[in-house]
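This is your field. Pick holes in the following sequence-structure pair:
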Amino acid sequence: MPTFGFHGAPAGLATRRQLRAVGLRPGGHGPVAQIKWKRGRRWAALYRLDLAAPVRPMTARRWAAHEAAMRARRFCRGHQGYVDHYVRGPLKQCSTCFSCDTNEFERSAY
């Protein structure tokens, strides 16, 4: 696979992000080249612009699935409710529940 340096890709090739910025997607075609930077530790695949297809529009069902996934990321297992931010970590607790559990743990350690 041809490899180019940072800012060295020829015209007609683009990364996924660059394709998305102009409303395109790879369209089922694989990468034809790659760019590498940071001494080879970072890389990105390059796709041909002439083979790229337009991005598919979001349908009502796809929007509903997206909303459900985002809603699931905001559910706190600590108090069994939704919060206004994404819940992170293995416990899936909001920051309030997590800090309460941490304080209880610290108190029980002494």
Remarks:
- The mean pLDDT is 87.
- Residues 60-108 form one domain.
